[in-house]
Specification:
The protein has 461 residues and is α+β, with helices and mostly antiparallel strands. The chain has helices spanning 11-59, 74-81, 156-204, 222-270, 274-309, 317-334, 354-370, 405-408, 427-438, and strands spanning 88-94, 97-101, 118-124, 127-140, 143-154, 313-316, 338-342, 349-352, 377-384, 388-394, 441-446, 452-459. The structure holds adenosine-5'-diphosphate and magnesium ion. Magnesium ion is lined by residues 363, 366-367, 423, 427. It comes from Yoonia ponticola.
Length: 461
């Protein structure tokens, strides 16, 4: 079977094919045995009639002083004639001499056993004939003579009955096969039901549902269930470790960096040495850079982790945008950049992880502010078309240049326009990953009249 069925083939097809092959073999056997039994029965019946006729003739033989008297009982022939339009031949011999009948009707090869008929088939007069033969000894002229009686009959009627029987056997075989075929389809379906149920139950699970599968399954599926549950448990463990790692890493990276920064600031305040102050300023800048990169890296890890694990909740986009924009106003104020929000009054709600949307939005506004010139305006516009929420972040900054957007989205990729603006190259990656997870789209391009325009399309709840 290994080579007949591909490992990826359907179990149902495999089962049905095997069952059909078995059914076909059984139907064939049924056909052959019904035919054999029927033929034997027909032949036995025919032989019995033939034998009776032969014996009836033999018993009418009378010996005597003046020879042998043969009085053929016509009842014997009518008995044979009753079975069809078969031709009947006979031959009676005294010793080796034919006294009446067809002298060329063949004799049996084996010696005869008295009045118990011997039957044999052979070719005669262009037909196969079945012959019954008996012998008895009769006193003729005072001498005991062996008289042999042969009665032969063509087999037209018997063959016709056999053919009819064969047809019936074939119908029976076909019927059996059809019935088995229907049964095999039902069997295959019923065998696969538990498997399908299990697949359905697994498919219905939400992305966060990492409980072990606890269902009654057939014994054969138990190892699969065990493996599945083992796998789920390992996955749960790995996810928990990832989550722990992300939170711990955030803590263990940020805290020491903050300490270094504070110490450097204190040192800077305490010294008048210009060279030392410059060095300390470089240290502070490097620490800021590291803290920022670490933060972005962990943010991205969080996004990747939560995109699989996402907690679905209803998120009202308007208030979220206002919150995030608010958090940027100190930074923007320092450079005299105005942050304007344009959102409709209607509630625009998404079904997603709030933290992820916030993370994407924060990165876009961060870029807009970072890469804007002082004393300019950053616009955040929210709108909806009924199926998507459209969120645009527009600035009048240095712009990203034409055709760069695809490369800039890559991990750790920063543009040539960055100058001395700090960054890690992960912001747009985060934005893209979040929009992918929610099933939306993200585009960033040159804005008409200068600056950059970032557009998020997010499916509504
Ligand atoms: N609003 C923008 N104006 C100009 N350039 C931008 C803007 N947003 C993104 N970019 C370009 O895209 C690059 C990738 O952005 P991002 O992934 O956020 O990295 P980062 O901001 O850390 O440099 C930036 O380095 C910058 O060159
Ligand atoms: Mg950025």
């Amino acid at each position: 079977m290994m080579t007949v069925f591909s490992p990826a083939g359907s179990i149902r097809r495999r089962l049905v094919v095997i069952l059909l092959v078995v059914a076909a073999v059984l139907a064939g056997l049924l056909f052959v045995s019904v035919r054999t039994v029927a033929n034997t029965a027909v032949e036995t019946t025919q032989d019995a009639i033939l034998g009776a006729a032969t014996v009836a003739i033999a018993e009418e033989l009378r010996g005597g002083e003046d020879g042998l008297t043969i009085d053929i009982p016509y009842a014997a022939f009518s008995m044979l004639g009753a079975t069809g339009q078969d031709r009947v031949f006979y031959r009676i011999l005294v010793g080796a001499e034919t006294v009446t009948g067809y002298a060329d009707l063949p004799l049996p090869d084996a010696p005869l056993s008295g009045l118990k008929p011997t039957f044999f088939s052979q070719q005669y007069d262009g037909d196969v004939v079945r012959t019954g033969a008996v012998s008895r000894s009769v006193l003729v002229d005072g001498r005991s003579q062996i008289v042999t009686v042969l009665v032969a009959q063509t087999r037209t009627a018997q063959d016709a009955i056999s053919r009819q029987m064969a047809n019936q056997a074939a119908t029976l075989g076909l019927g059996f096969f059809a019935f088995a075929a229907i049964l095999s389809i039902f069997t295959a379906r019923s065998v696969l039901t538990p498997l399908n149920r299990l697949a359905e139950a697994m498919g219905r699970r939400g992305p966060q549902d990492l409980r072990p599968v606890d269902r009654a399954v057939p014994t054969e599926l138990a190892p699969l269930m065990q493996a599945l549950n083992g796998f789920i448990a390992r996955l749960r463990g790995a996810l928990t470790r990832t989550e722990t790692f992300i939170t711990e890493a955030a803590h263990h990276v940020r805290t020491p960096l903050a300490t270094v920064r504070v110490q450097a600031e204190i040192a800077m305040r305490q010294t008048d040495d210009d060279a030392l102050r410059a060095t300390l300023r470089n240290i502070i800048r490097a620490v800021d850079d590291s803290a920022r990169s670490a933060g972005q890296l962990l943010d991205h890890a969080t996004v990747v982790y939560r995109a699989d694990q996402r907690a679905d909740e209803l998120v009202a986009l308007g208030p979220l945008v206002l919150d995030v924009v608010d958090s940027f106003s100190p930074t923007a104020d320092m450079r005299d950049i105005a942050l304007r929000v344009d959102a409709p009054d209607e509630v625009i709600a998404l079904q997603f992880d709030r933290l992820l949307i916030e993370s994407a939005l924060r990165n876009l506004i961060d870029n807009a502010v970072k890469y804007s010139y002082a004393d300019s305006i950053v616009d955040v516009q929210l709108s909806t078309d009924g199926t998507f929420a459209k969120l645009q972040v527009l600035d009048r900054g240095r712009g990203i240049g034409d055709g760069n957007s695809v490369q800039l989205v890559a991990r750790f990729k920063r543009g040539e326009n960055v100058g001395d603006v700090v960054g890690s190259g992960l912001g747009l990656t985060i934005v893209r990953d979040v929009t992918r997870a929610i099933g939306g789209s993200f585009d960033i391009k040159e804005r008409q009249g200068g600056g950059t325009c970032a557009i998020l399309l997010l499916p509504l709840a």
